[in-house]
Batch of 4 targets.
Target 1
Amino acid sequence: MSKIKELFFKEAFLENRMILKSDVLRFLEYLNSGGDEGTQFDAKDIGKILNHNQLVALDKVKTELGKHLSAFANTTGGLIALGIREERDEELLAQNKNLLKFSINSYEIEKLNLQHILRAISTAVEPKIDFSIDLVKMEEDSGQQGKGRGVLLIFVEQGLTPPYQVVYNRSYYFRHGESSFPAPHSLVSALFSYRRSPTLHLNLIKYGNPSHYRLLISNKGRAPALHAHIIINIYPRLMKGEKLLLNYQQIKNSTDGLWSVKCLLGSHKNNSMKFRFRALPGEIILPEVNEVLFDFPAVHLGQEIKLTADLYCEGFADHQEFTLSL
């Protein structure tokens, strides 16, 4: 879901459809009537990234657009429009009242390889940015199917792991006003310190009568936890006589279908039990969200019970230990 697309093309976003020529023309009319494009919009003349054969030059995508990709990802996100020309000569605009500040300068769609453009954008900045593109046809070629002229809209989301660096010149950029500027060292340092990352944490609470323990997992970081993987070890096994008081089926029933669970019982000699949790594809743990992992009875075994946990997700790893007083 693109917050930037919602900002500039709300109607298309809410209707969950592709952006149309009429949407672009309305947006252009808004800009030319004095609408505030602010720090989140940049118009680019397509001519700046064409080579001598009038084909899109991938190296120019990285050099001409790299600083704007970096700047938008490092601030609040933004839209780069290829095929919209911006007249920056304020004196000329003042002298000619019929001259529009923003106008369409579309390009031949057949000369654009979207896969190559996507690859160029995705490799222009490190770490990888979150972006999407819409190709909007503005003029039809009545004689040949698939041809015509259009504009390319590049929606860049605010990054979760700033700062973002342009690969070709190893520089960082930020957005100020209507332009992208090299970021000073102090800002780069601040962005590193505020880099968003997930932080998984387990909480163990005791409740109820008869007493039970509840193990909860939370994300105390500033970014969603992706590909979460948790290994729980309990020693000794939770048993009453020959009966296991905690087993695979009990845990599986408590996960609400969010986790793939595997149970491993240690040998009789080491008297332990292990449970492995893997988040199902597409499942994430959002910041400041508590989720129940599983419950188990608080039984008295005549000795302390140790529970250890190894927690992993993309960009994070940690180990926690608990001693259960029963």
Target 2
Amino acid sequence: MMNSSFVPSPVTNTASRVAARRRRRKERKLSILSAAKSQDANSNNSAADWKSETQEQVYSSRLLGALRMLRINPPSPTAPKGGRAVREAADRVLAVTAKGRTRWSRAILTNRLKLKFMKRHNKRQRLVSPARGSHSRCPKKRRLIIQQLKMKNLPTVQRKARVLGRIIPGCRKEPLPVILEEATDYIAALEMQVRAMSTLAGLLSGASSSSVPHPS
């Protein structure tokens, strides 16, 4: 008797490969959907945190401490003064309160360090290198014109996404879903910042008016 061995048909192999491919594609879609849901949940929770009174109180106390430090420590000649210094302190405290969970908060903190480094670097260059002429401004103007032409050729949605990405710190080169997620959190944080600063301004103005002696 001859031993007959089973030989799988090509049709069976093709069907199994197609089924395996469909299963992998389905698993990939499910993982993408679950990741998107978790990102939405995180962004919603973060936006909800900015609306809580506890978060507003934490930010207000930190901002008050930062403003006191501005009054105690006189700024350096190159440091921003007046309203700009208050605005930078408010944004820096907002980024610290976000605890680096978002791109915009990390961008604000790292941008401050970059500005410090650039100021020192520019100061050294002014001391070492001679004064440059107006021809150094030409490449910047040329780059700006090229960027404007590129923006005009983009579709409307991409153009608006680029504009929004420039407004949100740290989102200049990010895709649209990331920009929208960061914008949701950033807007909620700014709304909380406005509420806290309005409350602080009212308290400080009330304290200053009560400290003024009334005429007898």
Target 3
Amino acid sequence: MKLLKKSLCTLAITLWANQLVASPWPTGIDDKVSLVQNWTISIPVLDNDIGHNLEISDFNATSVAWGSITLSEDKQSLNYKPRNNFVGTDEFWYVLKDDQGRTNAAKVVAEVVSSVWPEAKTDSVDATYDEVVKIPVLDNDIGTNLKVISVNEWSVNQGKAWISSNNEISYQQYGEARGKQQDEFWYVFEDQWGRKNSAKVIVSLTEKASTAWPTATPDEAVANNGLRVNIPVLENDIGDELKIEATNEWSQNGGKTRIIGDIIRYTPPANFSGTDSFWYVFVDNQGRTNSARVDVEVTENKEKSVVEFCDNTYETDGTKANTQLSNSSPLAPVSYPSTIYQYSYFTDEDGNRISSWVTDERAYYTERTDSESVLWMKVNGSVSRVSSIANGFEGQPFNPLASYQGAFYFVQEGRHLYSHDGGKLTHLGDLLLDLGAGNFYTYEDGHTPDDSEYINAATNLTWGAEHRGGAGDALHLEVLNLINPTDGATPIRKYTYLRISEDTGSQPIKIQTTTTYSSSNSYQNESNSSFYYFNGLDYYKYFFSDGTRDGVQFTSSNWEHTIKQSDNGVVLESTGGVISKFVEDRGRLFIITDAFDPGPFFSNAYQSKLFVVNNTTDELVELAGCE
């Protein structure tokens, strides 16, 4: 027998012991299922529970409503059968156990629905010739989680129908305009359990005064230094309510394109300079299409960057092979206008001192009357009304956030994000449903509410937005959704990070949502900070830790600092490090990290390093380290 060296054995035992101590207690998470009366289902209850090598150790053999429960042979799922002909909400509990013998419990809520087949209702819709109309056919049908599965491709009177997004059916008349006509077709739908039914759609056709076909105009753009460029291609096209429908995924010379709202983002091919081109297709409000060509002039980055790091000066073309110490002096740092509004005062006609928030020489202030709160704008001595809400809202009616590209950003009624550019007020979204983490609340009985129920649970919710600063030509915001469950369970904080940038139409784009909680026996902490927007991507500092909790004593199991990059909400790459500074120089972004030692219980200590972003692959390239 070959013996292991003593040092290796000690190492293996020590690692095992540390993992054992740090392993969190198993967590049971309630389950919700639905089924048809008199059916039996298998419920994989452990799938959403948290722990190591879990199995079911005990369970209620009979549910609250006298249903029966049995255990699977592998002890990983439970079989549930409701009482004969029972319809309604039933529930039962089970106990889970990990490989250290530690237990916890969770509840299963079963919604038993009637075996009545889904009911179909006839739909009626108006349409014009050459128009594509979308029909929400399921809105008047009756059933659970209905889904359209098929439709007559051709109608009875020269029309065509097809299944489109959101379970809607699109219809277009292909015949020549011939006055008032009636058309019809059928579709088939099914419910959550595969039970099918069908319904008829009646289309009433009328002629509409024809407008000109949308006109396409070629576009030209420049991608300086081989960087991405966002191209507002629709600005020179002519038509009503134009939208980009498609684009060549690959350009003529191997570049890539991506549709982001009303713009197309172009990424040049690697090591390319010269003229590249691609085509896009757009559609108007009548479904009529046209297309145009875009020519992009890509310029090469021939300059070397100079950056200071660790008491040295480096000169580089963005590759590690061509990075060396230098006596050159770096350029002045690239900077962008501040996104912080200014706080100021002015004196009104009655001599009162009025506090205001100033953006681009426009002063915004609030006034409360007997019936409403009003947000006013004062500029060059003139006063105009921006927005108002009726009295009755508990809290600050208007909360200022930031100033970006001449627009003032604020939150109204603690929930709605707005921008005002001095003339136009734009609603950017709902912090509770759209821009934040969305509807993730669960009631004590286990059911997930619809949006109206979610909003009505506002006594258990906290939401809001904060200015997160950041750098690059962008505005970064943080949205908080805090839930205190009604059953006294663990409060959950979800933070959603947004970016607003002029090159993407100044619409909020989600970067990432993080989750933070602290229960009686475990915790998790996630946070983002130090944002920088460069070459179409967001770079930021990410921190994560989790572990066990015993009273006020926290014991970490995992702990990390990470450099993250996000492409409009999709995280591309993560590299360990504590971001200290961003440096933008001559078309390149450099990231400097700090040395950091988390202590003797963790192995992921961080060295101070200099990274550069590869503008072609978006990878972080390590150029130098600092001892």
Target 4
Amino acid sequence: MNTVDRSTPPAPLPGRPSARSTTTRCRRLALTAAALGLAAGLTGCSLSSDDLTASSETAIQPPSTTTPDTGAAPVEPATPPESPAAEAGTRANPHPVGTTVGNEDWSLVLGTPREAWGEISAENQFNSPPEAGFEFWIVPVTATYQGATSGTPWLDITVKFVGDDSVTYEDYCGVIPGDLDEVGELYAGGVAEGNVCVAVPAGAPGLWTATTGWGDPTFFTAR
């Protein structure tokens, strides 16, 4: 008969953990789970904080001031229309000397004006010189009558000088050579050639005018 030693505890069965080992594993699992939960919580807080910051930054962005591109070309300012040129023969647009002008009764051509005191003095010894500051200027005139009845140059034709001072000058010069006033009455087709003379300011710029009858004056350049 064999004797059993009761002082040594029996060995545990294989494949079945002891109660202490089971308790230790449970604690480790619990600690691991707690750690994972804490990490997950921190991650969640971190994501929420980032989201709030982005949302806050989006909220405080100023509104865009960029004007949308409509694709339309810029509108150029309209060019103001040019003023029409003044009518030829007016003071603003005088004819050159030598231009033929006329109406239903007369056709006129003014020749080149010239200073003529020497000629006038020689024409008549009793002619007086021009006043101080003035000169005697002769203007040759060719006039053709083309009306239905008759015309007289010294009655129908007037030549004057308009200075840049806007004053009209028409003073008599005395006895002059080839005076137009000496031409008599003309009928249709009759031609008168002669001179007229006007006392004008010495060296003054200006324009000449020719008038027939009661019509408006026609302006010519001084040279």
